[in-house]
Backbone:
């Protein structure tokens, strides 16, 4: 179990992390979702030991690891750009840790070879060992980077936007494979990403990092359906967040999911539903779904999603005003800071 | 109104691909011509001439074009000249090693530990500052430093470490080595810094994350990745040191004779054929050294 307690890190005047409390349980695929610049990479770099926190503690199973040199922490790090050793072959890359680590380096070449081959087989690269890393594709490099980390059997594997450099098809395939590989090994993965779909698909648990703090850490469905604060909701890209005053539901910020708002002509709102008026801006057709954009009276942008199989929205004219309405129990109210 | 025609024209025109190819070829030729003409006129032709002259007949004050191997025989049977070859090779080897030993750590610092590009450039420029003065001043400046009453001897005597001034410091092979190392070191620092600066920081972090200590990372990652830089620097330094004569002339007190010094003195006494022999020998040595260096590291693959 990896525990971060009140971890802070600042660069000059910029606060990257501001008292992060965070736990990655054993044998878990943990996704960490955050916008770019939210401090995700900093968090991973602190855990791996490439940088040290200004304040706070990082511990694995209760044993503090901050302050330890990074090569003694026994933590796997998979870089966004893969960071393969350009002058070594695929199998030499994978064998690097086994052969050259400070603690418990392997001397027996047969054992190194066997474990390297087993790791390559795990990531589906059997027979690629002799290739130069410049002579394989992006997806294969990603696998080499993963094999190189996994072969050392680290206590936890950190993945820094591991799918960011891959094209969409490959990304979907690697998603499944990463999950399968992790389940086979039983080690915890901490996967950092800026994509909410990736975070929700991959994670057994998903944490949202914003403003240098963990906003919420929950299972994907709980996080998606019941975000605890506006920040968490905003990162899921599925919630309209607006002032409660717009629909006369009191004060503060409220959120309603894109798929739970209906539209009708003004003055025809059904009984018992909360409503607000908004101007229809434009629509966006995404294939199986269509997004419609509205502008509320105070300038807030509202989005409504419509599924092609069950169309709910009437014919909309750009620039016209409509009444948006939703069931009172669809609303989530946030307290405290927005 | 113009009529559209779908007929192919009667004259067989070149396809756009062929036109493009022809244009590219013409451009390549245009870019190459000045260099080729220059090299042919001022390198290939003179080299051929030097080889030709080395077989001319040399009398005391004149040279005529009757072909003979006399100059070659004299050169290859003279202990002085063979000794000069040996001295040249020895000084080359020592200076090469010294520039690597002094230059590599500097390059390592600038290229790897300074990650600010502006500061990196500033430090590299600082390395070149000695070159803002003339070559002779840089060389002669070593005299007040190394002389019997020079700075180093004074300081050592004041500190009581020595009681007699050290005489081997100046006008010896030692001073030649010191002078050459100082002058040519920057040609080693530059290429190595360049190669080190190209190493992705995350590659080094990855090695650390896999459990390697700094020593291991240096040996297994940094050194191999910077070797092409060492090789390019070595070629620069080798070419310059092997053809050197000025440093040796002004710092050795004429005790150290390099092949370059022999060429200078033979040309000075109008012994063209003999100077040509030394010139050919020097060119062969330089060619061999560069060929060897390129053998050791495949630059095309590494750069």
Residues:
């Amino acid at each position: 179990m990896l525990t971060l307690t009140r971890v802070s890190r600042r660069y000059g005047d910029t606060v990257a992390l501001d008292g992060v409390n965070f736990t990655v349980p054993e044998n878990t695929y943990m996704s960490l979702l955050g916008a770019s610049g939210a401090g995700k990479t900093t968090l991973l770099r602190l855990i791996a030991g490439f940088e040290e926190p200004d304040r706070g503690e990082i511990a694995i199973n209760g044993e503090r690891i901050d302050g330890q040199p990074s090569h003694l922490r026994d933590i796997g790090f998979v870089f966004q750009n893969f960071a393969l050793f350009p002058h070594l072959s695929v199998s030499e890359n994978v064998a690097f840790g086994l052969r050259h680590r400070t603690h418990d380096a392997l001397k027996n070449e047969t054992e190194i070879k066997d474990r390297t081959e087993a790791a390559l087989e795990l990531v589906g690269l059997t027979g690629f060992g002799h290739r130069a890393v410049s002579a394989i594709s992006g997806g294969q490099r990603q696998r080499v980077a993963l094999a190189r980390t996994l072969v050392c059997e680290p206590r936890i594997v950190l993945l820094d936007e591991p799918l960011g450099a891959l094209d969409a098809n490959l990304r979907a395939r690697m998603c499944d494979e990463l999950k399968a590989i992790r389940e086979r090994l039983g080690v915890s993965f901490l996967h950092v990403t800026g994509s909410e779909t990736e975070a929700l698909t991959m994670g057994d648990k998903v944490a949202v990092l914003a403003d240098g703090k963990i906003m919420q850490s929950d299972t994907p469905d709980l996080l998606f359906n019941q975000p605890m604060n506006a920040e968490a909701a905003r990162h899921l890209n599925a919630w309209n967040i607006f002032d409660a005053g717009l629909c006369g539901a009191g004060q503060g910020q409220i959120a309603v999911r894109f798929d739970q708002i209906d539209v009708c002509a003004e003055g025809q709102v059904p009984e018992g539903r909360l409503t607000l008026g908004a101007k229809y801006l434009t629509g966006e057709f995404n294939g199986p779904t269509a997004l419609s954009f509205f502008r509320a009276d105070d300038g807030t942008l509202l989005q409504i999603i419509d599924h092609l199989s069950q169309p709910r929205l009437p014919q909309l004219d750009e620039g016209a005003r409509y009444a948006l309405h939703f069931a009172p129990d669809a609303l989530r109210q946030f307290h405290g800071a927005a | 109104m113009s009529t559209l025609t779908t007929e192919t024209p009667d004259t067989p025109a070149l396809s756009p691909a062929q036109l493009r190819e022809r244009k590219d070829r013409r451009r390549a030729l245009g870019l190459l011509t000045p260099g080729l003409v220059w090299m042919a006129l001022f390198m290939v032709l003179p080299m051929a001439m030097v080889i030709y002259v080395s077989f001319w007949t040399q009398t005391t004050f004149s040279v005529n074009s009757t072909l003979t191997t006399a100059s070659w025989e004299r050169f290859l049977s003279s202990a002085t000249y063979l000794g000069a070859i040996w001295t040249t090779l020895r000084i080359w080897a020592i200076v090469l090693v010294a520039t690597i030993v002094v230059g590599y750590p500097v390059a390592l610092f600038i290229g790897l530990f300074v990650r600010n590009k502006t500061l990196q450039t500033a430090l590299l420029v600082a390395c070149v500052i000695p070159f803002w003065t003339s070559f002779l001043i840089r060389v002669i400046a070593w005299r007040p430093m190394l002389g019997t009453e020079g700075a180093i001897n004074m300081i050592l005597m004041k500190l009581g470490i020595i009681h007699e001034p050290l005489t081997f410091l100046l006008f010896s092979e030692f001073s030649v080595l010191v002078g050459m190392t100082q002058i040519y070191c920057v040609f080693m620092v530059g290429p190595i810094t360049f190669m080190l600066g190209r190493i992705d920081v995350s590659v080094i972090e990855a090695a650390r994350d896999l459990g390697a200590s700094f020593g291991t990372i240096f040996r297994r990652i940094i050194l191999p990745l910077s070797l092409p830089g060492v090789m390019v620097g070595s070629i620069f330094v080798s070419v310059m040191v092997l053809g050197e004569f000025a440093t040796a002339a002004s710092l050795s007190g004429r005790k150290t004779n390099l092949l370059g010094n022999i060429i200078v003195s033979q040309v000075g006494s109008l012994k063209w054929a003999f100077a040509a022999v030394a010139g050919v020998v020097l060119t062969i040595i330089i060619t061999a050294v560069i060929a060897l260096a390129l053998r050791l590291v495949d630059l095309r693959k590494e750069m």
